[in-house]
Design a protein that fits this description.
- By secondary structure, the chain is of the alpha/beta class.
- It has two domains: 217 residues, Nucleotidyltransferase, domain 5 (2-Layer Sandwich); 137 residues, Nucleotidyltransferase, domain 5 (2-Layer Sandwich), CATH 3.30.420.40.
- The chain contains ten helices and 15 strands.
- The chain has a five-stranded mixed beta sheet. It has a five-stranded mixed beta sheet with strand order 13-12-11-14-15, sandwiched between helices. The protein has a three-stranded antiparallel beta sheet with strand order 7-9-8.
- Helix 4 packs across helix 10.
- The protein is globular and about 65 Å long.
- The relative contact order is 0.16.
């Protein structure tokens, strides 16, 4: 089943006549909502808010408590006056693949892709929804980058938003939302995006603004918080404060603390390095891709002091924090309602909201 490519109306009314579209990102622990507006000098962030989800309501990309998720969505949307949204499906339930197909039109590509879908997605074709985009030509064939999902994953999300009373304008993988937020349209470089969440770390290699490789590590910022808790014997909230203040920077008297942090963050760096090495060697040699030239960090745990420098030393590429306002009006003309460190947690939601503005 092709994912509806035109879930928004084909002949949509002019943007100034449409209701503002929220970007809503549902993850294992929170729901994040953002809304945008067009100012005199460009796009601005007009609303941003998050709500915590009950423990276990959403795990491993499965919605276990649709009622709780719907309630959280509804509460956020009502508080900001949102009635329609773009939503993301998580990478951990995404099957990202590339293939060459015959044909001259998207309809012909879709037919060709569907005939070989079981080669790329380990599910019965009848249970898979998919979408694709053109990524070049190879001889007389068209090269496609495609994503597949279990239909039940989509149905769960639609049920939750329907119960919340929120209309859906578009559904996409967060593999596309995050790059849209932090890269300029048409950026030709090959970039590793590192999204460090609470319990997972998402890795996306993007070339020419198109995701080409993605994986999720089962370790995130909470592991660093736990390391601080164990070292100092403090509460989780106090550990978060210490982590934010001290980070990974060596200072007099914090040798034991730093050793505790590095024992955990080194595991994250090693896993990232292993995946990056795969791309830099086999991916480049076998698929004709360009090597990664830099890495950008986003996510709620991206701003640990010294983290970019620590990762860069092991990954052997420059590492910087991302900027989710890359495609917004210059901040000489407006002030975001959240500070820079908070904004990195909203990369997916901002990318979703930008869908109507950035191709």
């Amino acid at each position: 089943m092709p994912l509806p490519r035109f879930i928004s109306v084909n002949f949509a009314p002019p943007r100034y006549l449409t209701l503002p579209t929220a970007g809503i990102d549902v993850s294992a622990s929170t729901i994040k909502l953002v809304m945008l507006k067009e100012g005199t000098h460009g796009i601005e962030l007009s609303a941003v808010q998050e709500a915590r989800l009950p423990e276990g309501a959403f795990t491993s990309a499965d919605i276990n408590d649709i009622g709780a998720v719907a309630k959280g969505i509804s509460t956020l949307a009502r508080s900001q006056g949102a009635s329609i949204a773009n939503i993301a499906l998580p990478e951990s339930r995404t099957y990202l693949f590339e293939t060459d197909v015959a044909g001259a039109t998207p309809a012909e590509w879709s037919i060709a892709l569907e005939q070989h879908l079981d080669e790329y997605v380990p599910l019965p074709p009848s249970e898979v929804a998919y979408d694709f985009m053109q990524a070049g030509k190879k001889g007389d064939q068209t090269h496609l980058v495609a994503v597949g999902y279990a239909r039940r994953v989509i149905e769960q999300s639609l049920e939750a938003f329907d119960e919340a009373g929120i209309g859906i304008r578009a559904i996409e993988s967060d593999l596309f939302s995050i790059p849209r937020a932090i890269l300029k349209p048409g950026d030709p470089s090959t970039v590793l995006i590192i999204d460090i969440g609470r319990t997972t770390t998402k890795l996306i290699v993007v070339a020419n603004c198109i995701p080409r490789y993605a994986t999720t590590l089962d370790i995130g910022g909470q592991a660093l918080t736990t390391a601080v808790q164990k070292h100092f014997g403090v509460t989780e909230e106090e550990a978060k404060r210490v982590k934010a203040e001290r980070g990974l920077v060596a200072t007099d008297g914090n040798e034991e603390y730093l050793a505790a942090m590095l024992s955990t963050v080194s595991a994250i760096r090693e896993e990232i390095a292993r995946r990056l090495d795969y791309w830099q060697t086999r991916g480049v040699a076998g698929g004709g891709h360009e090597p990664v030239s830099r890495a950008l960090i986003v996510g709620g745990n991206a701003t640990v002091k010294g983290l970019p420098e620590y990762l860069a030393a092991g990954l052997k590429v420059p590492v910087d924090l991302g900027d989710v306002f890359t495609n917004f009006a210059s901040r000489d003309h407006w002030l975001p309602p959240i500070d820079y460190t908070e904004s990195l947690a909203y990369a997916t939601a901002i990318g979703l909201a930008l869908r109507q503005y950035v191709s």
